[in-house]
Amino acid sequence: MNFKKIKRKCSFLLAFLLMITALLLPTAASENERPTLLVGGIPFGVRFFTDGILVVDYCDVEYCGASHNPAREAGLKPGDCIYQINEQKIGTASELAEAIEKSGSGALTLFYRRDGKEQSVTLTPLPCDRDGRLRTGLFVRDSGAGIGTVTFVTEQNLFGGLGHGICDGESGTLIPMARGSVMGVTIGSLKRGAAGAPGELKGHLSAGKTGALTQNTACGVFGAFAERPSLPAGAMPIAYRDELHDGAVTLWCTLDDNTPREYSAEISAIQRSAEGNKCFTVHITDKALLEKTGGIIQGMSGSPIIQDGHLVGAVTHVLIGDPTTGYGIFIENMLENMAVALD
Fold first, then answer.
1. Which of 8, 231, 276, 322 is most solvent-facing, going by the fewest CB within 10 Å?
2. Which one-letter DSSP state was computed for residue 298?
3. Is 68 exposed, middle or buried (0-12, 13-18, 19+ CB in 10 A)?
4. Which fold has domain 34-48+143-336?
5. What is the dihedral of CA 74, 75, 80, 86, to 10 degrees?
6. Catalytic (active-site) positions
7. Exposed e or buried b for every residue in 115-128, given b needs 16+ CB within 10 A?
8. Is the pLDDT assigned to residue 9 strictly greater than 60?
9. What whole-number percentage of the chain has pLDDT above 90?
10. Average pLDDT of the segment spanning 105-113
11. Following DSSP, what letter does each residue of 155-171 receive, concatenated?
């Protein structure tokens, strides 16, 4: 038996295995090179104004004893965003109402955006039988407010939260945002979730502005804090989607005691190719959280999820029929939707 040949073969095999292992497993260098973010888990409030006037629903006009809807008949739909009437640029619902009143029952050309494309329609408002005021048959919105949870903050005080976009409650459309302010929020109470009846964090916004909201995307809202808020968990490297695995995680959120706390959960059904905000299933296992909230409730969206010492994503949705379970988004998806790239 040629021991020298066997030794050389074993050495070659060992070197080959070490090379493959180095390729497959994160090295110390790659661990240091990946983005590191400050973990959120704190609530934030937003006040925003839409980029144009968002059509959220129809409201029929009673005219000559019958129901009519000039807007529907002209082809306008919920989700359309009106930005001009005839030659006049408009940005608020009051400007829209004023332009309609000035039309004197004449035909109006409304310019709007739908799916990123600019279009126009012509319609004629009708005088309502009840008060004689001219109406188009539209229910619109030009501003709003709400609360959510911060997922992460960067060293430059940029932040991401919610893990999904701010959508209109009537049409479900992602709201085109012109500008928004970040406000402090105090959680005053909560409604416990149950099957078929989602729970909710309830709070009030502070008078002062604490930052600016700059983006509203399907994978989260993004902005900048004027000053870094107090955060519960310090800095943490992210994990990439291929590194997630079924099993135990923790999440950070703030309930009605206004103190960020860490709770246990599990993730499963990981969809590694998912590009949206439903990338894996989140199941709450923490007894204290289940007793308090019943599971995931509105306002917890954006709660950062931690696995194996890495920030892996955020809570985004709850299952209506089972509040103990919901969905989460990869942190990669959130970062890819930020306008400012992270080093």
1. 8
2. B
3. middle
4. Thrombin, subunit H (2.40.10)
5. -30
6. 164, 286, 301
7. eeeeeebebebbeb
8. no
9. 59
10. 87
11. TTSEEEESSS--B-TTT
Identify the three-state secondary structure at position 36: strand
Single-letter amino acid code for the residue at 19: M
pLDDT tier, 1 (very low <50, low <70, confident <90, very high otherwise): very low
Q: Could you tell me if 164 and 219 are in contact, meaning their C-beta atoms sit under 8 angstroms apart?
A: yes
Query: Which tokens belong to 83?
Result: 């930005």
Q: Sorting pLDDT into bands at 50, 70 and 90, what band is 6?
A: very low
In angstroms, the CA 127 to CA 133 distance is 5
57 contacts: CB under 8 Å, gap ≥ 6: 78, 138, 139, 170, 171
Q: Give the fold, CATH level 3, of 60-136.
A: Pdz3 Domain (2.30.42)
* Number of residues that make up the chain: 343
- Strand pairing class (43-58; 81-85): antiparallel
The DSSP result for 262-308, as a single string, is EEEEEEE---TT--SS--EEEEE--HHHHHHHSS--BT-TT-EEEET
Question: Exposure string (b/e) for 25-44, b if CB count within 10 Å is 16 or more?
Answer: eeeeeeeeeebbbbbbbbbb
CA 305, CA 40: separation in Å to the nearest integer?
A: 10
Our measurement of the distance from residue 10's CA atom to the centroid of its chain's CA atoms, rounded to an integer in Å, reads 54
At 72, phi and psi to the nearest 5? Answer: -60, -45
Closest to 228 in 3D by CA, of 40, 59, 28, 73: 40
pLDDT digits (tens, 9 = 90+) for 19-63: 333 334 444 436 667 899 999 999 999 998 888 899 988 989 988
- How far is the C-alpha of 110 from the C-alpha of 121, rounded, in Å? 5
Task: For CA atoms 126, 131, 132, 135, give the dihedral sign.
Answer: negative
Residue 112: both structure tokens together: 């709007």
Query: Using CA atoms, how far apart are residues 6 and 13, in angstroms rounded to an integer?
Result: 10
Tokens of 28: 């110390």
